[in-house]
Amino acid sequence: MQTRHHPLLSPSLGSQRSLVSFHFGQPGHGEKVHIQASLHADELPGMLVAWHLKQRLLQLESEGAILGEIAVLPVANPIGLNQNLSSRLQGRFELMSGQNFNRHYLALAEPVSAAVFGKLGGDAKANTRLIRAAMKAELARYQAQSELQSLRHALHSLACDADIMLDLHCDSRADLHLYTGTPLWEQCEPLARYLGACASLLAEDSGDQPFDEACSQPWWQLRDLAAKAGLSAPIEMACLAVTIELRGENDVNHEYAARDADGIIHFLQHRGVIAGGAPRLPPLRHPATPLAGSEDLLAPHPGVVVYHAEPGSQLAPGDLVADVIDPLRDISSQVRTQRGGVLYATSDRPYATAGLGIARVAGSTAFKQGKLLTA
To answer: How confident is the model at residue 374 (pLDDT cuts 50, 70, 90)?
Structure first.
């Protein structure tokens, strides 16, 4: 294992933070895998999973079983980890700018297309190498102007040439689910099976350039730009980028973390990054659905929330999800799903303000347009 430190831009006199990455295997041998945790710094189940992975990978490396290169970043956001207000960690948004740590990464398709379209040929693998080199060159030219920009730049630079990028997050109160690009589902399905995902949400553009799409989206955008330009050069979907939501914020325990680390190891065996036969693929809990088919259930008025359905439940249209009770006016309102599907996440707040999102249901039919992610 190699340990590497990546200094971030100093935000103030006498202060500087850095990212730490742990590298297993050998660069240039087999597929490259980038695994990071807690980019939203208050989402800690992934940090524990990353620690379990690190212990497993140390043993596998000593056995000569790592056939590719695997980088693990257990702490992907040292900035957010130091943001505390009234003893509560505030890790989703940078306090200085108000920006989400998982938005606004560099869009690479346009500058990369300008750099490579005159050089692409009939060899898909050679085209992938050209495109990755152009991505690295574009990122190397970027000059960060703030600590947040330098964090985004460091993470993107580490992952831009990965064959597999796994971003470990969690929701408020949830069953395990994941997000990935629609063109990547065939590659991603074994991972969803090994992890036991209750829902797999697909999109080509969810809005505001989150980290997973910054890594994977350029490949299908380049494919489409090439077709528009009349180029017949083959372009691979060369980065499987997946955001894995490891249940809820309070689901931090060794049992879950060990199970999730096993699922990731089994997937990497399936891909051939780790030696040894992968276990037989488990059943898929639920077919993949469009992110644009996710139904947001809102509180119709303020009140106490009482849930009738648990995350992971399969719901039919009209099923009751929660009551919202106003004890001052003696109003009890029922919140029901209109479309049905898998209830994959709920709020963890027992009190709702008017219009608060209290649950999300993965439906099979797309009906939304525009930005598909919450703030």
So the answer is: confident
SS (H, E, C) 271-306: HCCECCCCCCCCCCCCCCEEHHHEEEEECCCCEEEE
pLDDT tens for each residue of 274-315: 999 999 999 999 999 999 999 999 999 999 999 999 999 999
On whether the CB atoms of residues 310 and 343 are closer than 8 A, the answer is: yes
Beta carbons of 329 and 316 less than 8 angstroms apart: no
Looking at domain 290-362, does it have CATH number 1.10.1740.10? no
The answer to whether domain 2-285 has CATH 3.40.50.150 is: no
pTM: 0.98
Map tokens 């597929």 to a residue: 31
How far is Cα of residue 267 from the mean position of the Cα atoms in its chain? 16
Residues 6+ positions from 180 with CB-CB distance below 8 Å? 188, 200, 201, 202, 212, 216, 240, 241, 242, 243
Neighbours of 27 (CB within 10 A): 11
